[in-house]
Specification:
The protein is an alpha+beta fold. It has helices spanning about 1-30, 105-115, and strands at about 35-45, 50-60, 60-70, 75-80, 85-90, 90-95, 120-125, 130-135, 140-145, 150-160, 160-175. A hairpin with a 2-residue loop joins strand 5 and strand 6. It starts with a helix and ends in a 7-residue tail after the last strand.
Length: about 180
């Protein structure tokens, strides 16, 4: 009986290390190729839910968000990298750096940074899906849900243990690979 338990624990620990290895390999892929995806972001603030959606493209430290919703902000573009810019209908506004504070719009560049070089704290595997938890510099935590192909399908930002932000991710591509649904 003891031998059977030892063998089972060794097999399970091998599965755990293989999952972690797969997550780290995928992070290297994310860091070395452009990322593109669509995100729907929901934020609970003072009892109200604030939502927006956009298409994200990122490569290294540079990226751009093109808003799709709400309708009145459709086609507004926010760029990040060496300088941050907000542009709409030909007008461009260079935005100042906001430090390390998280905001709904900064959540998407944060997601890209974590996908490319995040510090994995732990993960939970359920069926073919994995939820990975990453530590952030300000003590907050970002959890990212991955599907069977290890493409992100959701993310949540936790501050002081409370969920502050939820992102639904679709149409995710790395470099030239096919999009997920």
């Amino acid at each position: 009986m003891v031998v059977a338990l030892l063998i089972l624990s060794l097999l399970l620990s091998g599965c755990s290390s293989r999952t972690e290895e797969r997550l780290l390999e995928r992070r290297q892929e994310f860091a070395s190729a452009p990322l593109c995806f669509t995100a729907r972001v929901s934020v609970l603030s003072e009892g109200a839910v604030w939502e927006f959606a956009g298409e994200v493209s990122a490569a290294g430290e540079e990226g751009e968000l093109t808003l799709l919703a709400p309708e009145e902000l459709r086609e507004v573009r926010v760029s990040w990298g060496e300088s941050s810019r907000l542009s709409y209908d030909g007008a461009v506004l260079v935005l100042p750096s906001l430090g390390t504070e998280q905001s709904p719009v900064s959540a998407l560049p944060l997601l890209c940074r974590v996908l490319q070089r995040g510090y994995l704290l732990r993960y939970v595997q359920s069926g073919g899906c994995i939820t990975a938890f990453y530590g952030l510099e300000d003590g907050a935590e970002l959890s990212i849900g991955y599907d069977e192909a290890l493409c992100p399908c959701f993310a949540e930002l936790f501050v002081n243990g409370e969920r502050e932000l939820w992102m639904e991710i679709s149409d995710f591509t790395v470099g030239t690979e096919q999009k997920n649904g």
